[in-house]
Specification:
The chain has helices spanning 84-90, 221-225, 351-354; strands at 21-22, 26-29, 37-44, 61-69, 72-80, 110-114, 117-121, 128-130, 136-139, 155-157, 162-168, 174-180, 186-193, 204-205, 209-214, 217-219, 232-234, 241-246, 255-258, 264-274, 277-285, 303-310, 315-322, 326-330, 342-347, 364-369, 374-379, 384-385, 390-393, 403-411, 416-423, 433-436, 447-451. By secondary structure, the chain is mainly beta. It binds fe (ii) ion. Fe (ii) ion (FE2) binds at residues 109, 152-153, 201, 266-267, 445-446.
């Protein structure tokens, strides 16, 4: 298989070369008054010329944000995360960098709110603190030791205000669990001994457990020595396991359960306790990093599964919920780690579709009702290429699925992007509002809606 570098620079994967601030935004429909805050998403946007070896996961992070206030869209702005690579390229002074992390990090994978601030994240590195206007303030270690940084998918305990994270490294025990309290202080670290130097992209959190994916994508020293930008490879001989650590226990208390079939998981939708069982809804990739060039992050069709982990019997029951190809599963963050009913994901997440490459590239959004067992598919429409959509509750007392789905869609005809706001109840209906941006938002990774009251 040829290098994917070409794909990662084509269509809507192609980077933009300008940072802009736009305050006059054309809006179709009506932005709900209750949406008081900003939608911010990050993604790779290589600065300068990207080499033939370029991998999507390794591009400098660029943040894209839209500020909503009182039914209006006040601004769109995009800013590179000021990693050392970016400040050097722009000729700017470096931002303060804290001790920790394996690599300086690019902030290209996720942006979250914690302890009153925004944090741009990438695995194996420290987070960058980001201002409400998307300027990079510093990298930070939460006042403790984060030798391997933190992964880009922290899980939050809304009741306690805690942030739970995993980090992976290339030496034993290979995984560290860290707890960061509501004030933003690192208060606990637990080593979790997985079987090897696996890539641990995400994690699960229930009300009582931390879930670790010990799956067969492994750091490969030979590839690293050869200069492969992402030196990971599929190892079919590696025993795939899931680890469940009590939140009140230590790494040594982790219960390990083997899976029948090797696979890779980038993203769970949610996890929760059910008696002696842990239930995890997640997107399962049959294989990953299993090609000649070790560039392609997925092989086979990623589908939505429910894993029910029986901790007493030591078994995982694997049920396919929806066999359409999909990724970027999201749910209602207010009930994260508790039993959920709904989930939303992006269908047809092949690289060609995500990049809008080719005349037939098409994407749609899926809404899963996991109680009834139904899925509704909502095509974005001709020429509109979707990305991750997040759920935003309509108000403080709104129930699950009572609110909006929000994300960027690339309009191939305009060669520019929209922020789409959809009504989760009227899933197939027209958007509640489309904020037409005058520029393109390259296909990226993860974002979040950040209500104003959460930023200090
Ligand atoms: Fe991710």
């Amino acid at each position: 298989m040829a290098s994917q570098a070409y794909t990662f620079l084509q269509g809507n994967f192609a980077p933009v070369d300008q940072e802009v601030t736009v305050t006059e935004l054309r809006v179709e429909g009506s932005i709900p008054d209750s949406l008081q805050g900003r939608y911010v998403r990050t993604g790779p946007n290589p600065i300068g010329a990207a080499g033939a070896n370029y991998h999507w996961f390794a591009g400098s992070g660029m943040l894209h944000g839209v500020r909503l206030d009182g039914g209006r869209a006040l601004w769109y702005r995009n800013r590179w995360v000021r990693s050392p690579e970016v400040t050097a390229a722009l000729g700017e002074p470096a931002v303060p960098l804290a001790d920790g992390g394996i690599f300086p990090g690019l902030g290209n994978t996720n942006i979250v709110q914690h302890a009153g601030s925004l944090w741009a994240l990438m695995e194996t590195s420290l987070p960058y603190e980001i201002s409400p206007e998307l300027d990079t303030l510093r990298s930070w270690n939460f006042g403790g030791e984060l030798p391997w940084g933190i992964n880009a998918h922290p899980k939050f305990d809304p009741a306690k205000g805690e942030m739970h994270v995993l980090a992976y490294g290339f030496a034993e025990p290979y995984v560290l669990y860290h707890l960061i309290d509501a004030s933003g202080q690192l208060v606990r670290t637990e080593p979790i001994a997985v079987g090897g130097p696996v890539m641990v992209h995400d994690m699960g959190l229930t009300e009582s457990k931390v879930v670790v994916f010990d799956l067969p994508v492994l750091f490969n020293l030979e590839l690293a020595m050869a200069g492969t930008p992402l030196p990971f490879a599929w190892d079919p001989t590696y025993t795939p396991r899931i680890g469940v650590m009590p939140r009140t226990g230590t790494g040594a208390d982790t219960v390990w359960v083997e899976l029948d079939d090797p696979c890779y998981v980038y993203h769970p939708l949610n996890a929760y306790d059910d008696g002696d069982q842990v239930v995890i809804d997640l997107v399962v990739h049959p294989r990953a990093f299993d090609d000649d060039e070790f560039h392609d992050p997925s092989q086979g069709t990623p589908t939505l599964h429910r894993w029910t982990v029986d901790l007493v019997a030591g078994r995982v029951n694997d049920e396919v919920i929806d066999d359409r190809g999909q990724e970027f599963p999201r749910g209602d963050e207010r009930i994260a780690s508790k039993r959920h009913r709904y989930g939303y994901s992006l269908a047809n997440s092949s690289l060609e579709a995500l990049g809008g490459i080719g005349a037939n590239a098409t994407t749609s959004l899926l809404k899963h009702d996991l109680e009834i067992g139904t899925t509704i598919e909502r095509p974005f429409g001709p020429g509109l290429i979707g990305s991750e959509f997040v759920f935003v509750p309509a108000g403080e007392s709104a129930g699950e699925d009572e609110g909006y789905l929000m994300g960027f869609a690339y309009d191939k005809v305009r060669d520019a992007s929209d922020l789409l706001i959809l009504d989760a109840h009227d899933f197939g209906g027209p958007p509640v509002a489309s904020v037409h941006l005058p520029v393109r938002v390259p296909q990226g990774f993860h974002g979040n809606w950040i209500p104003d009251q959460l930023l200090s």
